[in-house]
Amino acid sequence: MIKLTTHPTDSPLTGQSKWWGEPDMPETLDYPELLVTDEDGDSWQDPLTFICQIRCEDIAALDPEELLPHEGMLYFFAALDYFLGDIEAPSYPGMGQWQTESFRVLYSPFCEQLHTHQLVYEDGTPAHLPAEAISFERCDEHDDGIRLLGWPYIEEVREAMPDRISLLQVDECDRWDLIFHDCGTLNFLIRPDDLRERRWEKTECYLFSF
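^ thats the sequence. predicted structure below, dont judge the formating
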């Protein structure tokens, strides 16, 4: 199990492991979007929030069981705008298990020739939080905080999704104004056999808050 600790930095972290910022992806991967329909029936594609990219070689030494790839880049996206303080966000995934359109896990087998996807608001300001560097260390399989692998920290999540491990656990953070209602976590969950076969599309997402 791998604990993630993030660190504010002035570096763009292009092609490196990073939390927030802008994803660096190959041309073969499209930036994931969510189809949103308003009360008037108008529809548009709303970009999911980029959470992090993990350069897999950074965690290889902490993953002797080779549960995760040890090369390439792993990406996580989710509809987090509401939980980052945008109460008028066009999409609110709700509590419990999320619909598959509200999150995405992507993987690139290589970390070269990547394209940085830049999202900006209409006034030209960046539509993302500043990128933070990530350090990695071993931890317990039931720890709280931000981590890769292991079981969900919250017992209710383990009971609701008993046959799935936590691919990524996202915890609240005052520095980012990231709040899951009242003391909650967001877990990207996957069955062990799907993880072994790298079936990222089988990942599910579950939000719990007390």
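The chain has two helices and 15 strands.
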